[in-house]
## 1
Amino acid sequence: MEYSDIKPLIDIYHRKIMTTNLTFKRYLYSKINWKVRLLGIKGARGVGKTTLILQYIKENFNNIDDALYVSLDNLWFNNHKLEDLVEYLYSRGTHYIFLDEVHKYPNWAKAIKNFYDNYPNLNIVYTGSAMLAIDNSKTDLSRRQTIYTLNGMSFREYLEYEGVMQITPINLEDLLYNHIRIAMDICSHTVILKHFDNYLQKGYYPYYKEAADDYYYRLSEVTNLIIESDLPSVEDVTFSTIQKTKKLLMVIAQNVPLEPNIAKLTTQLETTRDQCLKMLYVLDRAHLLLLLGDKIKDYKHLTNPKKIYLNNSNLMYSLSPNNISEGNKRETFFANQLNNISDVVIPKKGDFLVDDKFLFEVGGNSKAFDQISNIPNSYLAIADLEIGSGNRIPLWMFGLLY
């Protein structure tokens, strides 16, 4: 391999670095231990994984050619091997390589394991689909790597991204006990409910800005790509299974929140119970659905979920715009934001139990404590409320947690 062989990759890398903006960084940026030799970042398409690693390179390498960023879905890899590229770079002193979309490269886990073992001074950062079952891969990377998951934007991040205001992430217990003071401070600076309404419609995926009026179309296209392209890269699936997975997603989108009848879904999809459950859990891992049960999810043991939501409220507007209820939108937002930072299950009483300690009901201004009265650590998350009182907390505040 010669320099002329890799110049197309270097040119792409330089262009991406030049256009990378450092003004806004996702919440995960400061949490990552960038010093580890093998670092993985998982996440759904469009949440900002590529921007995250390009920002790190631009901010931390005085000479950007001390590192190389490549996306493994580049056509260059149709007739070149990643192994040859790494050998070429390492032998010439480049000890930092950033690999985007690793799930697009055949036997990626084995390749990365060999890089880690055979190049002692090589530092590897990679990104991959949220569906990657890394701990279960045939090549065990778990003892070699540190893995992070990047979720979509929180409401707190959206406010910063829009230039409204910067808010430090708030711990859940601090929020529960100090929500009145926090809300008064925030609401004295902005009309918060207007921004919250906008976020619920457009704000979970950072590319909503560049997509503008095409956002829902783009989001629909990304959803298709996840199922048609990413899923086959991660799972051994047939064309028939891909089509059934798309159908399953649309059936659920039109019926959320869904208390699923697995037998009925199995009949609709003309499949088996086990296959139906597998498709549901794949869509959950892909961050398209959010499955909740009475126990914490275990992807090794697939059980019937108690309730199914779309992963976030933006997907509701993209996949089923004529089937949006305020109640579903509220619950979807709450479940999404809390699930991204805590353990959330469906309790016998109330809507959500968080971290096996805090019980929540989600509703509008008329919501009362009837269902969860006299239960310790119980709270109401109330929509259309700027400032709460007692254990009645504005719903928007649960978007300040990360």
Note: The first strand starts at residue 38 and ends at 43.
## 2
Amino acid sequence: MKQRYDHDLAYMLQYEHVAWFEDGKVRILDRRIYPEKTEYVECESYEQVAKAIADMVTQSAGPYTAAGMGMALAAWQCRSLTKEKQLSFLAKASERISHARPTTANRMEQITQNAYKMAQNALEEGKNAYEAIFLGTLESLERRYSIMEKVGNNLARMFPSEGTVLTQCFGETIIGMMLRAARAMNKKVKFFCAETRPYLQGARLTATCCSQMGFDTTVITDNMVAYAMQNKHIDLFTSAADTIARDGYIANKIGTYQIAILAKHFGIPYFVTGIPDKNKKTSADIVIEERNPLDVLSFRGVRHTAPQVKAIYPSFDVTPPSLISGVVTDKGIFSPYDLEMYFKDAVQQFY
């Protein structure tokens, strides 16, 4: 049996622990409380999957897996209907799931529309749609992980043999792949992980993966970055991107822009990882999601500000190409000013 691409990765990056459809339910690891607790949210309808995605039960690329599994669940829900009604049901599910979070709706829609086509083909052949979507989602996972393995190898080659790498937020598969590649290359790097308020993805998720995969790992609060760069010998800063526009502007978790400014000030290279978005031509096409301000005013239900205090919570910020040393892709490392070159050759399907 072929070895899966999630082999030797941290617990939360293994397929079954991201999101998994089985027995008429989708099980999603609750990343809001992991690793303090290892608990799963069980969804019995595609609406519940969409809500879980919107509620940040899973983050980074986790929603992409949840979207595919959610479409399998939708097909399960409508399995007893006529072919026409099943397709109508799945079209609604595709729209609902893909737009659970606006910033990545274009990527999510590719996943849910692919699932819809899988169902359509299966039904035309007299097969059940939910099994076709589930198997197609597994194939998609293998494809995405294999592409990210190339990205991870390209990024790890930029690491010093011994040194310190700063991360921002949680880049999902790329985190696991860069760690696996660095380990294979015998790179003895240390990782500093910015905690990433208000959900602490850097502290809880990235740092957990780094430590589980055997690397010296240190968490810093988001306001310690300048100090760390000045005093802790940071050699390289890296982050993934929720969106990479073709003009070289990238959107990533709020705080990335200010870290990039600091990296430029201290002469530290900043490498962004990911696949450029073909349908996002400029930064004007990037939608910044404004989330519930209560997430900033409280943590896990405990309010830490006076009742009359207000907050804002933009989930992402946009970093210009002038602050980016290179965009690391499956095809190599590109200048952020020359991303059109990425599309000169055939692009492998990713989502």
Note: The mean pLDDT is 95.
## 3
Amino acid sequence: MRGYSIHKEGRGSIAWVSCLLILVGLLSVLSGSSLRGTWLAFTACFLVWAAVLSFFRIPKREYPEADSCSVISPADGTIVDISETEELEYFGTVCTKISVFMSPTNVHVNRYPVSGEVVYCRYHPGRFLVAWHEKSSKWNEHNTVVLRTENGTEVLVRQIAGAIARRIVSYAEVGLQVKAVEELGFIKFGSRVDLFFPVGTRVCVEMNQKVKGGMSLLAQLSE
């Protein structure tokens, strides 16, 4: 892919899919299918292979340097929720929440939205409801990471699997010092990322806005 590379998390999946599709193609030839049927089988195999390859692409971008108060989008996608809501796993209080939905066509790598120290990590197995379901952040497979910035503000990032995704990958570890836009992890085949921060934080996006991971400014923390 021109201007793209393939994420390391996709190598195994792409290899398995490639072998499977080659086998399907060979079986189509050996079964004595008509020329039209064989071409249809190979075309379908190629489209599936290309779709899987697209899921694991990483665009080559020049990421701007974020200041200590900027909250950068952790993923490519669409803003589907901006609200004040209770966050009970870590904060135990009402927070400002921004949700970024990743469709199957979006880039699925996740990035740290702020620089700071990782102070909390927890993985939760769960169901696989569609990512826009109101209960998906609680019931679906998800992974929670909390970052403490240099001014002491804590930002929670929650990776949420959807109806297609079956595995969340996170590179965060408690005590790790990270920088904004470094790789946080990957949600195989997409879904949603929620962010929570203190009420009163200035939100810099609006509903249904398209954002790019590591580039779009979501909010501005108080100094």
Note: DSSP finds three helices and 16 strands in the chain.
## 4
Amino acid sequence: MSNTPKVRFKGFGEEWEWRRLSAYLTVSTLKNRDKVYGKEDVLSVSGDYGIVNQIEFQGRSFAGESVINYGVVETGDVVYTKSPLKSNPYGIIKTNKGNAGIVSTLYAVYKPTALTDPYFVQIYFEQDARMNNYMHPLVNKGAKNDMKVSAVNALKGDVIFPGIIEQNKIVKCFEKIDYLIILHQKKCDETKELKKYMLKKLFPQNGKKVPEIRFAGFTGDWEQKKLGEIADKVTEKNIGLQYIETFTNSAEFGIISQRDFFDHDISKMGSLDGYYIIRNDDFVYNPRISVSAPVGPINRNKLGRTGVMSPLYTVFRPHDIDATYLEYFFKCACWHSFMIFYGDSGVRSDRFSIKDSVFFQMPIPIPCIEEQIEIGIFFTNLDHLITLHQRKCNELKDLKKFMLQNMFPQKG
């Protein structure tokens, strides 16, 4: 194994040193004897969020009747929790970046020595394989699958750290990456919330003839038409197997190829001649219900190609309406009340049931074409921003993963 990482800041050339973790951390014996901290100060350790206030994170305190024997965790202290996670079966190690508090006696609390930047310790153990490989030889599992390792013994494994100046440099690098991840995730979440809000405000609700919010220059009542007046049911069958790519309609991902969703085609070739042909910009109603689609989702084919759909779906082709406007109308929930009133969940609890003749009676509120286009552009831009921030967030997470792999020496 190399004692130097592949990626390194300029000015650092010396090899990293193998030492026991006890050279960098010492067991803290500080307890809450003076009752400085109460149940509102109890901390939990999360794999994704680090050390967090239990009430703020989980909505309540899980502390026992007395917290006198709880360990005090000051800012910069390191905590090891033996609670197994799916990716970390031997527990996790995190550094307290927030306010001081207390933790259950099940946790081990450590103070950094003069050789240690405590925030480097968390970064070092953030790679799952590194954490698991370190802790595995030190842990014995009890009869109840609980971890048998003392606070002292958890420090007896070997780690390879650089000098503290290089530790500081690495910490600052990861702090910047984490800050940018949080920033883009926050912007992504805020934009999603804005979209959710505007889906309620830009379409008429509860039988009203105008929405609560309108773009400047648009007045007058909206018209209401039945779905059957602005869309035709697609009944074209795939006779002669003209198309073999099967699409599916996902509440989360929209209309996508089965190959992308399931990694292979679910439908059998012999049955495809009875499937409906779905062309670009056709709409599809999927009767399968879920938490995010309580009456089933309606989505638009934006794949730019033609495929086939199971006859279990209802396929329709709009006309005399802006397709983007209609697409976003079906993202709001104002059409759900019609479905609930005229349909039911059927024999199968996971599938909604409504007759085609009734389905196409669904009322669709329609403004003038210019307002339709304006609404479509607005939501398209919001989706573009959501995608942009999510992509940037994912790129930064990939960068962090790369740096966790390459800014630390790896076993050869």
Note: The first helix runs from residue 54 to 58.
